[in-house]
Write a structure and sequence with these properties.
Blueprint lengths: L1 H22 L24 E8 L3 E8 L7 E5 L7 E4 L1 E3 L2 E2 L2 E2 L2 E7 L7 E6 L7 E4 L7 E5 L7 H11 L5 E5 L10 H14 L4 E4 L17 H6 L15 E5 L2 E5 L11 H12 L7 E5 L15 H16 L4 E4 L5 E8 L2 E2 L5 E5 L20 E5 L3 E7 L4 E10 L2 E11 L6
Parallel strand pairs: 11-12, 12-13, 15-16, 16-17, 17-20
Antiparallel strand pairs: 1-2, 2-8, 3-4, 3-9, 5-8, 6-7, 9-10, 11-22, 14-15, 18-19, 18-20, 18-21, 22-23, 23-24
Bound molecules: 2-acetamido-2-deoxy-beta-D-glucopyranose and fe (ii) ion.
Length: 425
């Protein structure tokens, strides 16, 4: 009898395990921070931490940092390697944070640039290796990489490696970049870590709680480092703050909101958002996307009941609903979750799809506990590191996919077609 039982059990075990693993994916524990560049000997006379961001439809801002002072804020560029017929000048800034003094932060806007074209460039003092980037296409299709809460761990490098292989056009980052958390040299190491990607494609970012870096008495200003290092094209959209702005690319109007600056009715951000939504021409930009750090919809047990989430949602949800926003991406919760189209906590064909993509790989690890039972409006949720890709095929169809970091490979774990417009009131 016992012999038979054992055999039956042995026979069933792989099946039980297979069922088990198809239900839940067991993540390995988070890996330690790498801080690779602190131990790396850098040439202080070379440009470093190069990143680029779109300014209007045909210009690009090139940002880099010099440890040595006195180098020109100048970029030389052209469309073939080693030849730079064009040149542009910009501005230089620095900041202090308690005892830390930043290097010289240079920002130069170049253009007009041709769409879908590779540009080669060198930054002052021109001792650097040559960098290159590709401008976004002139029309559909266009592909975005989307990931928040990156940090700088082994998991971050795995996520970045997968993103670099995705052939994306523009990066959208919903906040929490370096996890420097007041240790300013970690902003520098983060800049070096992302440079291979951020010098190569535009990175459009907004800020999270880890960017605030305000300490009573010692440093009373918020966002000092973030604003100095990650200047975004806010003036072009009529915003008066680097903490919120919008931009357009191909057929998309993309709005970046700030979860950690005033958002209540009548605040500067609220009024700006209202005006910005009123200016949108859906014939020109049929897609409307919003990026924010703290999620308005979230069935993870992490970050429940926070004012930056429910306060902003109660202030701004109506504006987004009336404007027929297609997708709202958020970070903050270190996991992936996709909701159906929602308005006021109920499924609604006219509301946006809400997606949490805070799974970039930072040192705080994953948020793996979920509310039970799962709310009906939550369609897919999983606590694994990874990244998202939004492939906007044409004016009416886009494919969203979430790619889990399975060790050294990116695996598509969730994918849907999003159609626009899908709303029937
Ligand atoms: C848009 O793309 C979808 C998916 O590939 C396709 O089915 C549809 O026909 C396309 N629409 C137009 C107008 O080309
Ligand atoms: Fe956060």
């Amino acid at each position: 009898m016992a012999y038979i039982k054992v055999h039956v059990l042995l026979f069933l075990l792989p099946i039980i395990l297979a069922i088990e693993s198809s239900l839940s994916y067991e993540r390995p524990p988070p890996r330690k921070s790498i801080f690779l560049s602190l131990s790396q000997d850098l040439d202080s006379s070379s440009p470093q931490q190069v990143h680029i961001s779109m300014v209007g439809e045909d210009k690009m801002r090139i940002s880099w940092i010099m440890e040595d002072s006195g180098s020109p804020a100048t970029v030389k560029y052209g469309t073939s390697p080693g030849s730079y017929p064009f040149s542009a000048n910009g501005d230089t800034t620095k900041y202090r944070y308690i005892l830390y003094k930043s290097g010289e932060i240079h920002n130069v806007v170049i253009g007009p640039l041709k769409p879908n074209t590779v540009y080669y460039y060198i930054c002052g003092p021109f001792t650097s290796p040559e960098f290159n980037f590709k401008t976004p296409p002139a029309g559909f299709p266009i592909k975005f990489a989307v990931v928040g809460d990156l940090g700088q761990t082994d998991w971050t490098t795995s996520t970045l490696d997968h993103i670099s292989k995705s052939n994306y056009d523009v990066m959208l980052l919903p906040g929490d970049l370096s996890y420097a958390d007041t240790m300013q040299p970690l902003w520098d190491s983060f800049g070096r870590l992302v440079e291979p990607l951020s010098s190569h494609r535009p990175w459009m970012v907004t800020q999270g709680n880890h960017e605030v870096e305000k300490i009573p008495i010692l440093h009373s200003q918020s966002f000092t480092s973030y604003n100095a290092r990650w200047l975004m094209p806010f003036e072009q959209s009529g915003s008066t703050s680097n903490l919120y702005y919008s931009f357009e690319v191909v057929g998309l109007h993309i709005i970046m909101l700030g979860s950690y600056t005033d958002f209540g009715p009548g605040s500067a951000q609220y009024n700006w958002l209202k005006n910005d939504l009123n200016k949108i021409d859906r014939k020109k930009t049929p897609w409307l996307i919003v990026i924010v750090h703290a999620p308005w919809y979230n069935s993870n047990t992490a970050h429940q009941g926070e004012y930056e989430s429910y306060g902003m949602k109660s202030s701004m949800e109506d504006l987004l609903f009336k404007a027929r926003v297609d997708i709202v991406f958020a970070g903050h919760v270190h996991a992936y979750e996709r909701f159906t189209r929602v308005y006021k906590d109920k499924a609604n064909n006219c509301g946006p799809i809400y997606i949490t993509i805070g799974d970039g790989g930072n040192r705080e690890g994953l948020a793996s506990k979920y509310q039970d039972p799962k709310p009906d409006i939550s369609i897919f949720r999983e606590a694994s590191f990874g990244h998202g890709e939004l492939d906007v095929v044409n004016a009416t169809h886009a494919q969203w996919s979430w790619h889990r970091n399975d060790d050294d490979e990116a695996v598509v774990a969730d994918t849907i077609w999003i159609t626009n417009p899908s709303c029937t009131l």
